From TrEMBL:
Entry annotated with the keyword Transferase: yes
Gene3D superfamilies on file: 3.40.47.10
Record NCBIfam families: HMG-CoA-S_prok
Any one Gene Ontology BP term: acetyl-CoA metabolic process
The Hydroxymethylglutaryl-coenzyme A synthase C-terminal domain, residue ranges: 179-257, 259-352
Top-rank taxon, per record: Bacteria
Protein name: Hydroxymethylglutaryl-coa synthase prokaryotic
The Hydroxymethylglutaryl-coenzyme A synthase N-terminal domain, residue ranges: 2-164
Length: 391
């Protein structure tokens, strides 16, 4: 039975800040951001967007009536959850109008959450071949204004429909994974922003990649020549290249040139969105699939997922005949084209806007947000969501 990604959608807020201008405002050489980190723009989420609405907007773009009837499991991967009890998946299920006889859960393991969701989805579909599973990777990366991590902030969500006979990518069953208790990145329940040991986290990312890659090779006899491309979790776009360079000498010159070229293509969307945690690997995959002009059916794509704390996994999939026709290329092109640049001052003002935590009532200006699904306000400690198409 072939199981994999049948549809993939993406959403990011319509506002961003330019990294050159941010660097200048922070008295930093812009090359440190654009070359050293590899980022060009950073998506900025208004107060009317959170992990729930980002996920719902990403899924809204790709789901049709048949999906709404056949999806019986919604998996919401995030580290930006809005409730310690209720799963964000429940809100998304309601906002999208998915049939009621479905499971809806939230999973958490830093940036690994969406990958965990995909692996769970594969097991569910193996037992229920007629089912479809909606897997969401949705996050808002926040470190704080003027902090060392500010340059690796971002916001967005990737939504994937997992099914049998997938039109985009069949996911292979071969996989290698690793868990180790490390404190490279964390966000305590009481904190609105994350904490990170940057140098240590980079070291752990590379160490995990090398471990699971060597596992994968030993278990399945794999070589670099088997892969047309390898996509990475990208907290910033230079991170994946640091890991890839560690294994390039294992292949031929042709392998090196091919993998590096496709890696560069796979970072294009991430460069102009920033870090979206659980969705970053799949935004990289989306960038590769939508912007490469030489991929073909049967090509094997490697995927490295890493979630700090830490869990890592290397797995792969094969592209399907006609995969391009199943992509929402035009919609994503329009999404990026319609974005508005904020000044650094405007970005700081938006970043500082937060929802009340004292139970007070607030009504938000959703007319200023072009997204279909928004946070409309708060009342009695409850977030009020709205799907404008239902109004």
């Amino acid at each position: 039975m072939e199981i994999g990604i049948d549809k993939i959608g993406f959403y990011t807020p319509n506002t961003y800040v330019d990294m050159v201008k941010l660097a200048e405002a922070r008295n930093v050489d812009p090359a440190k951001y654009t070359i050293g980190i590899g980022q060009e723009k950073m998506a900025v989420a208004p107060v009317t967007q959170d992990a729930v609405t980002l996920a719902a907007n990403a899924a809204l773009q790709i789901l049709d009536e048949e999906d709404l009837e056949k999806i019986d499991l919604v998996i919401f991967g995030t580290e930006s959850g809005i409730d310690n009890s209720k799963a964000g998946a429940v809100y998304v299920h309601d906002l999208l109008g998915i049939q009621p006889h479905a499971r809806a859960i939230e999973v958490k393991q830093a940036c690994y959450g969406a990958t965990a969701g995909i692996q769970m989805a594969k097991g569910h579909i193996a037992l229920n071949p007629e089912s479809r599973v909606l897997v969401l990777g949705t996050d808002i990366s926040r470190y704080g204004i003027g902090t060392a991590g500010e340059v690796t902030q971002g916001a967005g969500a990737v939504a994937m429909v997992i099914s049998t006979k997938p039109r985009i990518l069949v996911l292979e069953n071969e996989s290698a994974y690793l868990t180790s208790e490390v404190m490279d990145f964390w966000r305590p329940i009481y904190s609105e922003t994350a904490f990170v040991d940057g140098k240590y986290s980079n070291e752990q990312y590379i160490a995990f990649f090398l471990n699971v890659w060597e596992q994968y090779k030993a278990k399945y006899g794999a070589t670099l020549a088997d892969f047309e491309a390898i996509c990475f979790h990208l907290p910033y776009t230079k991170m994946g290249m640091k890991a890839l360079r560690e294994i390039l000498d294992q292949g031929s010159q042709a392998d090196r040139e091919r993998l590096v070229a496709h890696y560069q293509t796979s970072t294009s969307y991430n460069k102009i969105v920033g870090n979206i945690y659980t969705g970053s690997l799949y935004l990289s995959l989306l960038s590769l699939l939508e912007l490469s002009d030489d991929l073909k059916a049967g090509d094997k794509i490697g995927l490295f997922s890493y979630g700090s704390g830490a869990v890592g996994e290397f797995f792969a999939g094969r592209l399907q005949e006609g995969f391009r026709e199943a992509l929402a290329i035009a919609e994503h092109k329009a999404l990026f084209a319609d974005r508005k640049e904020l000044t650094v001052e405007e970005y700081e003002a938006v970043f500082s806007q937060t929802l009340p935590t004292d139970g007070s009532t607030v009504t938000l200006d959703i007319a200023a947000d072009p997204a279909v699904i928004c946070v409309a306000g708060m009342e009695d400690n409850k977030r009020l969501y709205i799907n404008k198409t239902n109004e």
